[in-house]
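Protocol step 6 of 9: fold each sequence in the batch and record its structure tokens directly after the sequence line. For illustration, a two-sequence batch is reproduced in full.

Sequence one:
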Amino acid sequence: MQLHGHLAHPHRNNRISYTGRSTYLVTAVTRDRCKAFADIEFGRLCEDLLAKHAGRTRFDIPAYCLMPDHIHLVATGRELDSDLRRLVTDWKQATGFAWSRLSCGRLWQPGYWDRLARFDEPISEMERYVSENPVRANLVTNSADYPLTGAIVRPFGQH
């Protein structure tokens, strides 16, 4: 639902625990659709912070894309205590703090959108949706040419 250029504040689904080894598609939008990630250097810092917080909360990120004014990511819990809410909250807080230190005000709209992958759903479809976002937005003709997209996946056995 679009309201004056803002996404309505999403509510969490009470039937989902948001912990464990599930996979989610997450979208978070910048405040007032600020094009913060058009600044590639800032985007790189946000990628580093995503890797840091994914490691802390024990998530793999098989695909992410920092579009100019929002992020899409696929997050897969590695452990039973992997907590999606903690990952997104901590990452948004860290990137928001970094943005405010640049004297740019608030970075994020409240909340984020998520969708839990069904048990029979190929994760590759979510990954493709995320990686092809810059092509659908006409920012590049080949998704490999977009600078702020990738994956953060730890080798098997690493924590």
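Sequence two, same batch, same settings:
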Amino acid sequence: MRHAALLCLGLTLVAFSVGQARADDEPKGYVCSFAIGNSWSYENGAFKTAAPAPLEFEIRDIDLERQSAHLVTDSREKPGTLKIVRAINANHFLEVVNEGFLNVTTIYGMDTATGSHPAVHSRHLGLMGEPLFAQYAGTCTAK
């Protein structure tokens, strides 16, 4: 019984150290570019679709242990606060904007052929009481 307990403890420590090493190896920032996507609005009882304008932003100060980061855009004086949800081979960066709307950016593991990370960005908001949302596909590069 004692040997089994020691084996379990040893395996737990190995798993923790491997997970910690991976977290330490993760980039502390990304520059993201989204050139394709769709946006939808809801007007007069129906959804309408359109191509959104391309997006670029930076995610900085990534702290996986504290599950926090900052979003930097050209249109903001001050970086936005992001929460991080970790997944297998991806990290989700969640932003709750002042009005309560939600933006989510998922950055996947690096594509070794291109050196960039495939990414998806979704915006869920409203304008004058009507739903407005968008989904983009693009890439992020470690900074």
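Proceed to step 7 once all outputs are recorded. Observation for sequence two: Residues 79 and 109 are 24 Å apart (CA to CA).
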